[in-house]
Amino acid sequence: MQTKVLPYSRAASYTAYWAFLLAVSRPLIGAYAALLAFVATIVLNVVYQFLFRMLNQTRPPLYGDIFTFILLGRPTTVYLGAQGNEFILNGKLKDVNAEEVYSPLTAPVFGSDVAYDCPNSKLIKQKEFIKIGLSQAALEAHVPLIEKKVRTSLLCHPIFMEHRGQWISHQQWRRLTSLPQEALSGEKKCGFTPINSMLPWAPLPHNKKRDAAHAQMRAIYVDIINKRRNAGDNVPEKLDMIGNLMQCTNKNGEPLPDREIAHIMITLLMAGQHSSSSLSPWIMLRLVSQPAVVEELYQEQVANIERTGPNGTLAPLRLEDIDNLPLRQNVIREILRVNSLIHSLLRKVKNPLPVPGTPYVIPTSHVLLAAPGVTALTPDENKKEDIVDYGYGAMSKGTSSPYLPFGAGRHRCIGEKFAYLNLAVIVATMVRHLRFHNLDEKKGVPDTDYSSLFSGRLKPARIGWECGAVKFF
Ligand code: HEM
Questions:
Q1: Mind telling me which PROSITE patterns this protein's record contains (predicted)?
Q2: Which among 10, 24, 73, 438 is placed 20 to 30 Å from 206, CA to CA?
Q3: How confident is the model over 136-155, as pLDDT tens digits?
């Protein structure tokens, strides 16, 4: 349908032009005119939005399950529900694009030629390499490492030493669950700030820190790669992710460049560490609000794990133990459901997209936003599993499910297994050693702060803790 209204931008510029002429010739009248122009611009904008929408029925409305709003200066169309998730997350590659929306934020952090700084076919290949690196054997080997890291934190981390028996705030918790490479942690340092989606190159102090941190991280990984290559000890039985990537070859049969390996490692560190360290405070806050569940989690281990540790204590965790602890798995699953970690999944529209069953056509100026976390809170009984293979193994197409904490479609998370394992070991180790309580007789959990890419807790979010009955130290 042809729209016959005066374009808002042209009308606004006429008004501004006349205000300017007046301001030059008669200052007082000019000031009033400027004020009038300002008010007129707002009124015109509102009238334009309503008029345009009334006349152009193909544009999504301002409310309902499909609606458009301006996010960081760009018209963003949200489509809620399982159909919306299917429409956006399983959209065709030629129609919807993740790189254009995510790369301003991620490319300076992850580095060149990986993730969203390369064509999707290359990312799919990289996900295939990562999947090989997250083999059963690698996951088995990670369990004692993660447990050791948590125990070392409990024993030696300055936060626990300083605040023994007191409280841990959400920032401290994040530091506790970070890897030693803290250079890029923190939303500011890694540049995951709203302004960076528009001005990632701006010479702002946080961008300088981000770039310096990226260079530092890359140098660390390239150094590890060089040392291994020179020592000639990249043998299969020692294969961790770096070792695995050093053995992978691209489609010409050539090994991956060192720089690319380093950038994939930074991507994994950022995607994996950031998400787990954002979710684990939620797990603790939820558990604190349900102390009986903490006790049940502990008793589940007592009932299922042998007491072959020092002085008859529980044995160190193994991968096979995790399947025998269903309550712990379910706690993590449920917290992922009620605290959708990545609340908005974005795609840029590349071709005008008709929305099936509606008169709407989403234009190419729009960004699409899927919010599977909303669907997870309004469950649908008609679940069905569609299997699909995008090139890195068969998996559930998933969009018909109301539960999609790891996304769906070709951009679905590659780290789900590792994330569960990581969180499961962290929770199991914490409940072995600590008891938690809410401070100041508070009930429930803090509200969610949606202002960042990852849903965090509204501050302050602090919990009390003490050493548990069964101690390892
Ligand atoms: C609780 C933990 C995690 C959650 C909730 C989570 C969630 C997600 C979601 C929702 C996406 C899809 C983004 C989109 O469609 O726009 C995603 C993508 C991704 N995740 Fe995770 N993730 C987690 C942990 C991890 C871990 C541990 C790793 C690495 C080992 C990882 C690596 C990735 C990568 C590389 C992508 C990009 C995939 C692509 O665009 O094709 N994630 N994650």
A1: CYTOCHROME_P450
A2: 73
A3: 989 999 899 999 888 877 66
